[in-house]
Write a structure and sequence with these properties.
The protein folds into 2 domains: 38 residues, no CATH class; 74 residues, Nucleotidyltransferase, domain 5. The protein is built from 3 helices and 7 strands.
């Protein structure tokens, strides 16, 4: 018998003392396949909730993005929101320079209802550029 050890006792019978590794290899390959399927879904899942520890010496990180949203009113016109808070153009004129003093790489993301006129959106883009924000994007939904 290849790779096995056997001995004979007084009765003439023998005990085979070898290890069959085929089931061990099969189980290992099945576990490898399971991990290959499960691990990418765990690693790429951004919705895992964690409770972060508190630190007395921690600093707030500065947001590098300014979100401007134009929401259409039923009676016409639009409401302007800056970072989720209702505002107007004069407040945006004071908000952007204050944010630029904290962060020179400020980016603006402009989202507008599709019913907002093109001229109003261009006016907000022009306002942002005049105030010194040179990086901006227009927010859209993905096409189906």
């Amino acid at each position: 018998m290849a790779g096995g050890a056997s001995y004979e006792d007084d009765d003439g019978g023998g005990m085979i003392a070898d290890i069959n590794v085929t089931p061990l290899v099969d189980i290992t390959l099945v576990l490898l396949i399971v991990f290959m399927i499960v691990v990418p879904s765990i690693v790429n899942n951004p919705s895992i909730k964690v409770e972060l520890p508190k630190a007395a010496t921690g600093d707030d990180t500065l947001k590098s993005t300014l979100a401007l949203t134009l929401q259409r009113k039923a009676e016409g016109g639009y409401t302007l929101y800056a970072n989720g808070e209702a505002t107007d153009e004069s407040k945006v004129r004071t908000l952007i320079p204050a944010l630029l003093t904290k962060n020179k790489d400020l980016q603006a993301i402009i989202a507008a209802d599709k019913g907002i006129s093109y001229g109003d959106v261009v006016h907000i883009v022009d306002l942002v550029k005049q105030l010194g924000v040179h990086k901006f994007a227009l927010n859209t939904d993905a096409a189906q």
